[in-house]
Amino acid sequence: MTRGTADRQPRERRPTAADGVVVVDKPADWTSHDVVARMRRLASTRKVGHAGTLDPMATGVLVIGIGRATRLLTYIVGADKEYTATVRLGVSTTTDDAEGETLAVVDASHLTAADVETAVGGLTGTIQQVPSAVSAIKIDGQRAYARVRAGEDVELAARPVTVSRFDVHEVRPARTDDGSPVLDVDVTVVVSSGTYVRALARDLGATLGVGGHLTALRRTRVGGYGLDVARSLDDLGALPMDVPIDVVSLADSARATFPVRELTADEARALSYGQSIDLAEPQPAETVAGIAPGGELVALLEERGGKVRPALVFAPA
Question: Of the chain's two ends, which shows fewer C-beta atoms within 10 Å, N or C?
């Protein structure tokens, strides 16, 4: 035994969290990976993941899956998302947000709120969007942002996305640090999975002929999870070390994400062994959560060949 080993105290470890979801209000300047690393310590398990990356400058809803709930994340990440944001018109940047280098500054003082509303109309609905070059999209196995940082010119193909809401709240004059006149626009957007709000800011500026970028971004909802159920990392870390962190149970997480089929005991038993059951009337076309009589999540269900089959089994644990 080395000197001092006998006096060394083991690091106190919080009890392992139950399988479920924790909705974190991500702070600014943290990466989503940073939050996952912190949650692994708080939940006392390495089986932690997140549903949908947020850039370091962004704040707000980051859905964290713990234990078996990580298997739900593939479905949650595909849900629609709501954001509040501020777009600065008159300045374009290399990253389409405030963290990039300025590319151009154009006087935007001639623009009116009506001009902005008209341009927003053209960016609402199903549109073709070219993602930001510094996105996490892979090109030949390498992230686009890594190629940009390596000095490559990256061109990404346009892809269809849906902007179901693009509400303009306030259009106000502002000035850059060197005094150039610009406009700051506060907006709320609701978008499909895969939509880049930075790219909406860029395209709004391009439509108006002055350039634009994102100066603030807060995600307020992912699918059925909003800020009303979000917890800060400070609050989670302040819990006594002998108390496991609270989670949204597997069943409640599934209810927030999928239509629900209430199962009989016989149906729950059959599904837990990977067997199919009869169709219910009416049978939704999408994935359905099968909930046992006792309230436990049994499986995610899909209709195949006129029967309901388990796509993903959760019970027995």
Answer: N
